[in-house]
Amino acid sequence: MSVSDVSAKVVNFTQKPKTLFICMTLQLKKPIGAIPKLYFYGVGLDVSHQVFNSRRPGDIRLQDDYPLNLQSDVTISAISKVYFSTLNANLHGSLKQTFGTVSGEYNNYPFTGSLVAQGLSDDTPFDASLNFGHIVLPYASEQNITLTDGKITAKGTPDNIEIRILTELSAKDIPNGKYTGRGVITDGGMTISRLTAKTQGGTLIADGTMDWSGEYQLDANLYGQKVSINDILPLQYREYKDYLPKTFSGSLGVKYFYLDTAKNQTRWQFNLAQKDGEMVDVSLAQSQKKPNLPWQIDAKWQKFGSRKFT
Q1: pLDDT of residue 188 exceeding 60
Q2: What is the pLDDT of residues 38-74, one digit of tens each?
Q3: Start-to-end C-alpha separation, the chain
Q4: How many CA atoms lie within 13 A of 230 on its CB side?
Q5: SS3 sequence, the chain?
Q6: pLDDT tens-digit profile of 87-127?
Q7: Are 58 and 140 in contact (CB under 8 A)?
Q8: Which of the residue ranges 11-25, 102-116, 267-281, 296-310 would you say has the lowest mean pLDDT?
Q9: How far apart are alpha carbons 78 and 188 in whole angstroms?
Q10: CA pair distance 128, 117, nearest whole angstrom
C-alpha cells in the first residue's frame, strides 16, 4: 500500500480484530517506504466511541501497534459529564499504549498532569495523574467547597474510574483541613470508600455515595473519636455551641438532596449517634416553590445512659 498527497473525509482502516475510524479531514504526504505515515492537520480519531481527538498536528503509522506522535484535543465521555473540559494532550507511543502530558479545566479551573492509555483495548483503560492549585467544586455551590494544592490520580476505564485525592479543603459548613481519599466514579455518580480529614479539632473519617445521574444527591457517614466540635464549628454557628456536645465520638449520617422532586424541596438530613448514648436527628428543608421562605427545621434528641447496679 503506497499513497501520497491525498485528502479524504473519512478513512476506515481495518486490522483484525480492531477497526480504526479516522473521521473528518486528513491529508497524506509522501510516505516512508510502502506503509503510509498519516500527517494530521484536522482529524478526529474515534477509539471505541469513547475518546475523540481533533484539530491538532501530528502523525500515525498504519502498521504494527500504530506508532503515533500527536498534539490532540481529547474528550472522554464519562468525565466530560462531570465538569471536565476537553483535554489538551501531547501524545506519543502507539495506539496500543499511549503516553502523554495533559492540561485542561475542571469546573473552569485549570489543572495539568500525565496519562497512559491503551486505545486498542475494548474498554480503553487508562492511568492518569493530575495536579491543581485551586479548584471550586460544582456540587453544593452554596458551600463554596474549595480544593487547593492538590493531586488526583485516576485509573480504570471511562465507565469505571478509580480515583485517589490529596488536597487542602475549605468550605462554608464543612471542616477545613487536609483531606485524603479514594473512590470510584461511574457514569452516573461516585462511591467514596474512604475519606480522611485532618482538621484542627481532630481526625474525621467518611464514606458514602454521590449521585448526579439526575438531581444531585449525597449520602455519607462520618466517624470520629474525641473530635473537638468547638474547633471545627463554622463561625456562623458559634452562637449554638452551648447546645452542642463538646466532642464528637461516634457516627454522623449526612444526606443532601439538591432537589427532592417528590416534595419539591432542597433538604439536609443529619443523624448523630454518640458513643455516650446521645442521639440527634435533624432535618432541614427549603421549599423550591417559594425559595425565599426560611428553612424548616425538625429536630429530635435522645440520651440513653447506663446505670451501675450493685
Answers
A1: yes
A2: 655 555 555 544 455 555 567 777 778 878 887 777 7
A3: 96
A4: 5
A5: CCCCCEEECCEEEEECCEEEEEEEEEEECCCECCECEEEEEEEEEEECCCEEEECCCEEEECCCCCEEEEEEEEEEHHHHCCCECCEEEEEEEECCCEEEEEEEEECCEEEEEEEEECCCCCCCCEEEEEEEEEEECCCCHHHCCEEEEEEEEEEEECCEEEEEEEEEEECCCCCCEEEEEEEEEECCEEEEEEEEEEECCEEEEEEEEEECCCCCEEEEEEEEEEEEHHHHCCHHHHHHHHHCCCEEEEEEEEEEEEEECCCCEEEEEEEEEECCCEEEEEEEEEECCCCCCCCEEEEEEEECCCCCCC
A6: 888 888 987 888 989 899 989 999 999 988 887 777 778 89
A7: no
A8: 11-25
A9: 9
A10: 8
CA triple 276-230-201, angle to 5 deg = 85
pLDDT value of position 4: 47
Retrieve residue 297's grid coordinates.
Answer: 427545621
User: If 0-12 CB within 10 Å is exposed, 13-18 middle and 19+ buried, where does residue 17 land?
Assistant: exposed
Residue entry with cell 480522611:
196
Mean residue pLDDT of the chain comes to: 79
- Spatial distance between the Cα atoms of 291 and 130, rounded to a whole number of angstroms: 38
* Burial environment of residue 111 by CB neighbours within 10 A (0 to 12, 13 to 18, 19 or more): buried
**CB 47 within 8 Å of CB 38:** no
Give the CA radius of gyration of the chain.
26
Supply angle C-alpha 276, 280, 281, rounded to 5: 150
Amino acid symbol at 105: E
8 A C-beta contact, residue 213 and residue 232: no
Cα 49 to Cα 11, 39, 192, 230, 246, distances in angstroms: 15, 22, 28, 52, 54
